[in-house]
Amino acid sequence: xxxxxxxxxxxxxxxxxxxxxxxxxxxxxxxxxxxxxxxxxxxxxxxxxxxxxxxxxxxxxxxxxxxxxxxxxxxxxxxxxxxxxxxxxxxxxxxxxxxxxxxxxxxxxxxxxxxxxxxxxxxxxxxxxxxxxxxxxxxxxxxxxxxxxxxxxxxxxxxxxxxxxxxxxxxxxxxxxxxxxxxxxxxxxxxxxxxxxxxxxxxxxxxxxxxxxxxxxxxxxxxxxxxxxxxxxxxxxxxxxxxxxxxxxxxxxxxxxxxxxxxxxxxxxxxxxxxxxxxxxxxxxxxxxxxxxxxxxxxxxxxxxxxxxxxxxxxxxxxxxxxxxxxxxxxxxxxxxxxxxxxxxxxxxxxxxxxxxxxxxxxxxxxxxxxx
Length: 372
Hints:
Heat Shock Protein 90, 5-stranded mixed β-sheet
C-alpha cells in the first residue's frame, strides 16, 4: 500500500509543524455556541484546505484566489471571534514569499499589508486598545517575513542551479579526460609502437645474416613492448609525470633505432622547472621524435634548449625532406598546442632544409629570485 501524503513529499514535516498555530483559533471558536460555532469551524476547515492547496503550487490565478480566501477568513475571525486570530496572517505571509515575479510579489505584499493593517485599525476602533498595541511587533515581523521567505527561496533555487552546473562540469571534465587519455595514448603508444616497428624490421634483416644480434634486438624489443604495457597501465591509473631528462633518453633511443643522429644543445639540468612544465614539454618532445621517425627520413636531429627573459624555449630541428605542402595540422601538432595552452605557451614550425619546431613557455620566477 502506498503512503498517503497530505502535503507534497518534498516539503517533509514543515507543513505539518505549521498546523500547530491553528490550535489557538480552535480554542477561541470552541467557546462560541450555535450558528457562530458552526460558521467558525467551517471557516477554519476552509482555511486548512486553502493551506494545503497553496503547497501544491496551482496556476497563479488560483494561487491568488486561495490567498484571498485566507485573508478574508483572517479578517472575519479577527473581528467577530477574537483579535488574536490576526496571527493567522503568518500563513499567507509565508506563501506571499513564494511569488517569483517581482511585480506580483509587490502587489501581493501591498494587498496583504493593507488587509492586516486595516484589520488592526478596525480592532483598535472596536476598543481592543491594549491587545492591538501588543500586536505591533508581531505585525511588523509578519510584514517583513515575505522578504525572508523570498530570499530563502532564491537561495534554494541558486543552489539547485549550482548543483545542475556542477553536474554539467563533471560531465565536461569526464569528456575532457577521455580526450586527454586518447591524446596521451596516441602520443605515448605511437612513440613506443614506432620503436617496436623499427626493431622488428631490423630483426627481419638480421635474422639470417647476424642471428646473435637479431636475438639481442628481439630481447630489446621485448623490453620495449613491456614498457608499452607499463605505459598503458600508467595512463589508465593516472599517468606518471614525465621529465625532460627522461624523455631525452627515450627520444635518443628511438632516433638511434631509426638510424637518425641525435644532438642535444643548451641546458642539461631541468630540475628547476615546475613538474607541469616538464611534463608538457616532455610530451611535446615525444610527439616530435615520433613524427621525425615516421615522416621526415632525416639523417640527424638537434634539440636546443634556451632560457632567456623569463621564457623557456626548445628548438627541434631535423634535416629531413618534409615538404611544406605535405605538412598537416594533425593530432600530434594539435595535441602540442592544447597542452602548451595550459601554460600560455606556443608552438611554431617552419620548413627550410628540414623542419624546425619552436616551443616556448613563460616561466614564473620565485619571489626570492626576483629580489636578487
